[in-house]
Amino acid sequence: MEHWQLAYLGMRQIPDELNEFELATFFTFSRKERGLIDARRTDLYRLGVGLHIGFVRMTGRTLDAYKQIPKALWSHLSEQLGVDPPGLGTLRSLYGRRTDTLVDHQMLAYQVLGFRPMTEHQRRYVLRWLKEHLSGRPERGQLLHELKRWPYEHRILIAHDRLLKRLIVQGRPGRRSRADRYAGTRLWRIDAG
Questions:
Q1: CA neighbours within 13 Å on the CB side: how many for 114?
Q2: What is the DSSP secondary-structure string of the chain?
Q3: Average pLDDT over residues 42-64
Q4: Region of residue 38 (phi > 0: left; psi between -120 and 50: alpha; otherwise: beta)
Q5: pLDDT at 184 over 50
Q6: Cβ atoms of residues 86 and 47 within 8 Å
Q7: Among 39-43, 87-91, 111-115, 151-155, which is the least confidently predicted range?
Q8: What pTM does this model have?
Q9: In the structure, what pLDDT confidence band is assigned to residue 176 with cuts at 50, 70 and 90?
Q10: pLDDT-derived band of residue 140, with 50, 70 and 90 as boundaries?
Q11: How high is the pLDDT of residue 130?
Q12: Where is the DUF4158 domain (predicted)?
C-alpha cells in the first residue's frame, strides 16, 4: 500500500471534490469488475455498483452515508460505463427504500475486490496485536491509522471508527475483559461471603 492511500482509509463518505488522479485510480474498472457492473438490470444500478466498487477500493469500507455524490464522480462513472449521467445527487435518490438493493450492491462491490467482513478470529488477532503494540507505548495517536491499514492490506472491510476505538481500549495492557472482571467480582463475593 502506498503512503498516500492512508488518507482515504476508513472514510465514511465520498469527498466533496475528487481530482482526475483519484477518479482514475479508484473509479476505473477492470474487465472482471465491468462484467459484474454490466450484469445489472438498469443504468442506475450499473452506476450504483460502480460507485460502491470505487468507494470500497478507495476506503476499504462500504458506502452507507446518504450524503451528496459529486457531479464530477457521476460524470466519470457515466463515461466509464457508457451510460447517461444521472440527475441524482445522493444515494437516497438512487435506492430510496430499497435497502436490500443497497446491501446487495455493497456486497457485490467488496466481494469482487476480494474483501470480506472481519471474523471473530481476526478480531481476536487484532486485539492480541494491539496488546503487544501498546505495551510500553504511551503514544496512541497513529494507532487508529495503523488499525485501518492492517485490514485493508488483508482485504478485510474496515470497521467504523467507534468500533476501532473500542478495540484500542480493549487492547490496552492490563485491561481485563468484562467476563474476567465479572468472574473476579463473583469470586471476591464468594470469598467475602
A1: 6
A2: --GGGGGGTT-SS--S---HHHHHHHS---HHHHHHHHTSSSHHHHHHHHHHHHHHHHHSS-----PBPPHHHHHHHHHHHT-PPPS--BHHHHHTT-HHHHHHHHHHHHHHTT-BPPPHHHHHHHHHHHHHHHTT----TTHHHHHHHHHHHTTBPPPPHHHHHHHHHHTSTTPPPHHHHHHHHHHHHHHH-
A3: 95
A4: alpha
A5: no
A6: yes
A7: 87-91
A8: 0.84
A9: low
A10: low
A11: 84
A12: 12-169
Q: What value does the mean pLDDT take over residues 36-58?
A: 96
Judge contact between 75 and 88, C-beta under 8 A.
no
Place of cell 444500478: 45
- 10 in Cβ contact with 143 (< 8 Å): no
Grid coordinates of 168: 484500542
Sign of CA dihedral 108, 9, 26, 91: positive
Whether residue 157 contacts residue 61, with contact meaning beta carbons closer than 8 Å, is answered with yes
The C-alpha cell at 172 is 490496552
Closest CA to 86 of 124, 48, 54: 48
Q: Are 135 and 173 in contact (CB under 8 A)?
A: yes
| Residue whose entry in the numeric block shows the C-alpha cell 473500542 | 166
